Amino acid sequence: SRVVKLAVIPGDGIGPEVVAEAEKVLDAVTATSDVTFDKTRFSLGAARYLETGDTLTDDDLQAIAGHDAILLGAVGGTPGDPRLKDANIERGLLLKLRFTLDHYVNLRPSKLFPGAAGPLANPGEIDFVVVREGTEGPYVGNGGAIRTGTPHEVANETSVNTAFGVERVVRYAFDLAERRGKKLTLVHKTNVLVHAGAIWQRIVNEVAAAHPDVTVDYLHVDAATIFLVTDPSRFDVIVTDNLFGDILTDLAGAVTGGIGLAASGNINPDGAFPSMFEPVHGSAPDIAGQQKADPTAAILSVALLLDHLGLTAEAARVSAAVETDIATRTGARTTAEVGSAITALL
Ligand code: NAD
Ligand code: IPM
Ligand code: MN
Questions:
Q1: What pLDDT is attached to residue 1?
Q2: Among 102, 106, 131, 133, which Cα is nearest to 242's?
Q3: Distance between CA 336 and CA 237 in Å, rounded?
Q4: H or E stretch at 143
Q5: 0.95 cut: is pTM over it?
Q6: CATH number of the domain at 119-255, out of 3.40.309.10, 3.30.300.130, 3.65.10.20, 3.40.718.10?
Q7: Is 60 annotated as a binding residue?
Q8: Out of the domains of life, which is the source (predicted)?
């Protein structure tokens, strides 16, 4: 039977709480199939840094890279915690994993499940996927500051957009659109960010020529936030850069019933490196340790993981259990109660 080597990074705050439920579901859904998950747990994050001073060692990175896939909860401490000033958990751990493992597709589906308590009065059918570029943009750390702390301080953060990097993620987005509703929306800010905007628009136009069945349109990111609230059913596949994609997907989570439902995959489509699956949300220090977090995003991330590994039947069972659970939700439940309810529905 098949053995999948899974690296598990519970992380900080609500990360361990939601990962425990995701593992509950994973264990249950694979109990009856002929695939075994061989799990290795990695203690990484703000808590580990405060204990040892390590963020992500080369040994950690090498060990993680030797797995078939990664499940991550969330990492990061309370924003502004002075003890974490030099740690840079987000860059030194999360982004280092995404960059080193070449997760150039950050896949973030948004679906309004029947019964989900979204904030919109007439949402229509919401079912789209944001294909967020994962290895470039303003995230690469290309910049610097001089004369820090003086009135003449200058701080630059340069957005990096390469033809190689933009083209590969745009191709992925078109292929996905072919398999879905055949509509692709480029979101950018070409009216102001003219250099980055031009390369994105040109490459989308070029790749579009090979996909005549896919309807292509374009929105400036500010207008896209309007339509995500007023007319979200217009979207099928959105392709966008790393930073716009980050912002749009928190908004998309809120619109589809809460950030506690939003799953994601950091994908290396070539399969050269393990892909990493995690909720869109963070470590939520404001509710950590209280069993208040919704583990559904982590559980749906397991569905994405199973799908990525070709375990489509298992993935479908997890998604179906989540759908039923959302449709029948009443009253407040603890994190563990939600996980157990979904497990029971498998
Ligand atoms: P956050 O997503 O952690 O929290 C934002 C709000 O959403 C909070 O009110 C929180 O309680 C709520 N929330 C988040 N997840 C929830 C869930 N599953 N159920 C119910 N409510 C939920 O964002 P933040 O406060 O900006 O960030 C906190 C820390 O997490 C920071 O250190 C940040 O850098 C980090 N972070 C990490 C990741 C990651 O590891 N992938 C992602 C985002 C933020
Ligand atoms: C996310 C997070 C990360 C990002 C941070 C924590 C680096 O917000 O996964 O959406 O900006 O990508
Ligand atoms: Mn984010």
A1: 85
A2: 133
A3: 33
A4: strand 137-146
A5: yes
A6: 3.40.718.10
A7: no
A8: Bacteria
